[in-house]
Amino acid sequence: MKNIKFIFVLFAVLISANLMAHEGGHYHKGDGINLKTWNLNTGEKVRGNFFLAKDDKIFIEQEEGIIKSININDLIMEDQQLAKQKIAKFLAINNTNPRTDNIQPIPVNPYKFVPFILLSFLVLCLFIFKEELINTYIINSKIGISSISFLFFITILIACSKSEVATTASTNTTTTSTFIPKTTSTFIDSAYTAFKPAVSTSFDNTYFYVASNGIPNHNMMIGITNWQQQVPISQAYSGSNSWSIPLQPAYATTPLSTKSNFMKGAVAIAVNGIPIFNALNNRGEDALKIGELDNWGGHCGKGDDYHYHAAPLHLSTLNGLKPIAFALDGFSVYGAKEPDGSSMSSLDSCHGHITTGSVYHYHGTTDYPYVVGAMKGKVTLDPSTTAPENQIIPQAFTKPVRPATTPLNGASITDFVAVGTNGYLLTYKIGTKNGYVKYSWDANNKYTFILTDIDGVAVTNSYQR
Questions:
Q1: What is the topology classification, in CATH, of domain 1-179?
Q2: Torsion angles phi and psi, residue 302, rounded to 5
Q3: 332-390: per-residue pLDDT in tens?
Q4: What is the pLDDT of residues 154-206, one digit of tens each?
Q5: Contact between 325 and 314 (Cβ < 8 Å)
Q6: In degrees rounded to 5, what are phi and psi of residue 68?
Q7: Pair type for strands 332-334 and 361-363
Q8: Sequence ranges of the chain with CATH classification 2.30.30.700
Q9: Largest Cα–Cα distance of the chain, in whole Å?
Q10: In whole angstroms, what is the distance from residue 354 CA to residue 369 CA?
Q11: How far is it, in rounded angstroms, from Cα 312 to Cα 304?
C-alpha cells in the first residue's frame, strides 16, 4: 500500500512539472472554438481568428497556436473591411498615446511556477529527511496525501486554462500599436466622385492627388460683411501643383495646434477641390466671426483664390455619409454624422476621434475650430515659414493676377452671378448704394476688371497672367 501511495505522489508531482510546460491559450481541435474563414483574392481560404496587425498585414491565429500572416490587400473586399474594423476596434479600446514598439512580449503568468516550487521543495525533502520522514509526514498522512492531491488538481487548472494574463497581453499587442491602415485610393476617390469632372484625381504609392480649378460647384461671396475686395478666379491646381493627401497617415508625437500654427496655406482639401484653411486668418482672427466668410464658409485670399475657413458641411448634401474633406495629414473629415450614420460622438482636442469600426477621423462642425483643432497626424512644415504663419508641404500654390487689395469698410456683398463662360459680376452695398466688380478673362489669360464704386465712377484695369 505504501508503494502505491508513493508512486501516486511521484506521479502527481511529475505530472505537475509536465503540465507546467504547457502554455495554454491556443485553439485546439475539439475545443469547440469558432474560427473565422478569411478569403483571399486567389481563392485560398485561411481559418483562424484575428490576432494582431502590423504594417500592411494582419496575423491570424490558427489551431494549435499556428500564426499566419496575410497582406490586407490580398483579402477580398469584405474581409479587408472586417480586418480594418478589427484594427480600429482595438485602437479605440486603447485610445492612448501611441507607442513606437508594435509588438510587446506576452507577460508570464506568475502562478504557473507554483507547482515547480512545491516540486523542488519535495525533492529537497527527499534528500534531507530521507524516506522515513517522507513516509511519516506525506505517504502515511491524510493531510500530506490530500495536499499532494490538491497540488495535482490546482496544477491542472493553472496549466490547461486559457491564461487571462496571456489574453490581455495579446490584446495590448494590437491596441498599443502605431499601425494605421493605409488608406485605399478607392476609398478616397469615392468621396470625390460626386464632384467630377470638375475635380480629377490620381495617385501613386505615397499620395492621392486632387486637381481642380479652385472654383466650387456652388455660388460664392454672398453674405460677406467684412470684405477685402478680393474675388474668385480660377487656379491651376493641377499637375505638379495638385493637392496631395498622404495615403499612409501616422500619428504625430505632439499634434500641432491650429491656434498657433498653419495661419498660412491649407490644412485640408474638400471633396469639391476647394482648399480648407485654418479657422483663423493670418491675423489670428476667427474669420467666420468677424464676417469675412460667405454663406458657404469661404472667401478669397490675396491671390484671388477661393477657399474655406469654416467647415463646408453643405457638401454632405451630395456626399451623404462619405467624407467632406481630407486633411493634409491623411485623415478624413466627416460632416455631422459618423461614417455609420449615427450621431457624432464627442471630439478630442484635435476635433476628431476613433469610433467603432473606424480609424481616426475629424468632423466638421458649426463651432470653432470648425474642422481641425490640431493636426493629429504627422506633417512636414515648410522650412521657409515660421509659426504661426507656417504651412504644410507639399502644398498647392496660387498664382496671383493682380496686386493684393485692401478692405472696403462697410461693404456687404449681396449678389454674385456668372457672366458668360469666363466672367462674374459681384454686387456689394454700402448703406443704401450699390457698387460693382465685373471681371472676365480670355483664352490668353488676360484678365479685365471693371470696378464701379457706389458713386458710379468706373475704373478698368487689365492684367496678364
A1: SH3 type barrels. (2.30.30)
A2: -65, -20
A3: 999 999 999 999 999 999 999 999 888 999 999 999 999 999 999 999 999 999 999 99
A4: 655 555 544 433 333 333 232 334 689 999 999 999 999 999 999 999 999 99
A5: no
A6: -125, 135
A7: parallel
A8: 1-179
A9: 124
A10: 18
A11: 19
